[in-house]
Amino acid sequence: MPIQVALDNMRLYQNTHKQFDVYYPKNWYFRSFGAAEGHLWLVGFADKEVEELDQALIELWLDSGQKTTSENTENGIFYATVPRDEASHYVVKGPVELKETILAIAHSIAKSEEIDS
User: What is the DSSP annotation of the chain?
Assistant: First the structure.
């Protein structure tokens, strides 16, 4: 089972193509899968290298449709939904044991122009 990360120990992932930024655990890896699996954009995060999506512990989806902020758990998977704009939203999902990390990632998401350099 993965170890919980210190939430103040995060690194910035920037996506210039879809114009969003998000913080993830500093000692973790990520892989951007692009427009895949029916999502506008898909990123996988894990404490080990991510070559295939099933190796990701946490997934970040950019999906179409307007949604409000929400959290729910289904079959041991925790989902945090964050609105983006009138046409899209983010979902961060992973094992309920990583809820604190999922929420830290979800709460850090911002459209690129909202991030101060």
Answer: -PPPPPTTSEEEEEETTTTEEEEEETT-EEEEEES-TTSSEEEEEESS--SSGGG-SEEEEEEES----EEEEETTEEEEEEEEETTEEEEEEEEGGGHHHHHHHHHH-EEGGGS--
